[in-house]
Amino acid sequence: MKRNNLLGALISMPAVMIYSLFVIYPLISAFRYSFTSWDGIGAKEFVGLANYIQIFQSPELVASIKNSLSLIVFFSVFPIFFGLLLANFIVRIRTQKIRSITQVILFFPQILPLAASGIAWSWMYAKNGLVNQFLTAVGLEKFAQSWLAGFSTALPAVGIIGAWVLTGFCAVLLATGISKIDSSLYEAARIDGANWWSEFRNVTIPGLRQEISVLITVTTIAALSSFDIIYVTTLGGPGSSTLVPGISIYRLAFTQSSVGLASAFGILLMVIVLIAIVPIQFYSRRSDQ
Amino acid sequence: MLSKLNVSKVGLKLIALGSVAALAVSLISLPTAANAESVATTLTKNKITLVIADETGFPLTDKLAEEFTKQYPNVKFKINRDSFANLTANSPRLLASNNAPDLIRLPTIGDTVKNKLLLNLDPYVKAYGWDKWSAAQLSGLRVNSKNVRGSGNLYQLGLGYSITGVFMNMNHAKTLGITSVPESLAEFEADLAKAKAAKILPIMAGDKDGVVNFAVQALINIYGERQKLSDWIYNVPGATYNTPGAIKGADKIREWADKGYFPEDINAIDYFSFITRFQNGEGLFEFNGNWEAANVQAKLGSNSKFFLFPSLNKGGKHVAMGAANSFSVPAKSKNKTAIVYFLNWIHTNEAARQITLDVTGATPGGDPKTALPKVAAGSLIEDGLKMAAQLSKDNGYIDFMANATAGIYANAIIPQSQLLVGSKITGTQFVTAVQDSYAKELGR
Questions:
Q1: CB–CB of B422 and A151 under 8 A?
Q2: From B413, which residue of chain A is nearest by alpha-carbon distance?
Q3: pLDDT digits (tens, 9 = 90+) for B238-247
Q4: Domain total in chain A
Q5: Of A146, A237, A254, which has the smallest distance from its Cβ to B89's Cβ?
Q6: What is B164-322+382-442's CATH number?
Q7: Considering CB atoms only, which of A148, A238, A255 is closest to B406?
Q8: What is the ipTM of this complex?
Q9: How far is CA A204 from CA A168, A181, A218, in A?
Q10: How many Cα atoms sit within 13 Å of B73 on the Cβ side?
């Protein structure tokens, strides 16, 4: 028994070391820096909670938190909803080859570097881009505009990019989840006279509880910590309509050299993510019992 | 036998230790350039490699390095490039590292002087005779002990000194019956109205990454007082952005936005798209700088003009942005004497000055009595040189407002200008927001 424990510890040692070095150590450092005023090079000045207070007093930084909460609708709700529909469709494909190809195609956006996707989408959203060409082709040209330049359209436009990235991922994971559900449950439901919707509600969704809670966690984190897509498409603009904490933290740390303030915002962002995620984890764990 | 071997081994070890000690002593006693008498102005004959950290898309350093190596074959260069944004973000760490380059492109001094990361070039001023150069051209490269720019020790030099103005597409001008460049704000606005009426885009501009602020500042320049704005940019205590002139200038931009003088999708147009679209014929006017002169010339040829943004009234003095394409020597450079020799050579050597002008269209700076490089008659680059001379005469040079602090551009000027040209805020709101951000960042 003892030998097994020792063996286990040894095997996990490399992972623990890497995790400590690249996650725990920076986290502790950021926590320490968040109580200082520091430009990254010179002397650190202890300022207590001043950085945290400054964040809440800054309308712009508070707005960035609100924007990232709005992005949860696009990064989380849409992909999981459409992912469920697509997953249902995938599992009904009888030919294994076609099913595999469909899953690969759906998963493709996940593999592409976010920066490259962002640039491609900027072109599509441009005044003469694909989106407007499509709208004109179907007779909706009065809606054609520069989507990333509009104060009210930029955030949804960026959100749709996120939804595009994450939907396939959700669909593939959920399809795998559905295929693990005991088929006898479906048979029992059919015998009881359940239709498609009843089956979906009473067998599929409960059977996917684990997968759904994982997806809610992953996609919510993606929404709250978004950076790549926004940096490449709008840089937080126009105005601050797409400003998110990721962009603000980058600017504070690297453009303005306010490392203390950036660290405080980073810690705060982590707390917000935990507040969003922990209840979901709790709920999913409880429902397993 | 064995003992003889041991003795020679020990002997070798002693010689090695002794050499290391001697080297250490000689390194410690190298002069640290504290006063003019102790700085060297001669180039070493040893083989050395000078490392330059520069931004992508500006091949000037490549060409200058090539020419310098041609003239001094013992000096080679290694030029490391990164995007402007990355280089700016990483420069404090690059400067502080033990592998600091010998020269670095540094648009904003920020806290680097406070953190003692840059070489003080003052001892070289007398040694090289830079006191004969234009004091105004160098003043923006000085910082005093209170981190206020405009005076104090010299910490930067420019690889070319830029000037901004307006490019005009003369094909469109001909269509509109305009035969010469406007010489007053009223004439400029009349041209804008003519273009709009004829469905020609009056001003090609972009604001995804803030470039429309060339136009915003052009108006603030002529409505405000140059010295007041310059003091604000240089962080002089008590200076404020919130002046009647700044509000008038920003209000004028809002007026132009409301009248549809800018592209409809301006907030989605980045720098590259903006210059490309103008060069491809979109827009009567483009607010930009001499660095684009060669590109505009290549695309529009003789159907283009480059001129200083006009004064408020005809015949008045011009004010325009112009700055050094600034580079600094890290305090940790291992080849200080050689790199400063290179910097001086750039300003004084005839071939180098010609390269600076040919590649960037910028004036090479240096002693005003030194002959200007050759330029093609009637070219936009020649226009740029004439503009620089006129601006010097009018004492109208001013730095870019984006250089006021490290964060002001990204935090305030860009997002607020996007709201301004998007017709969402007034001039007063723009100016107030920028001043608030400035005060917060500087802790005032």
A1: yes
A2: A239
A3: 999 999 999 9
A4: 1
A5: A254
A6: 3.40.190.10
A7: A255
A8: 0.87
A9: 18, 8, 21
A10: 0
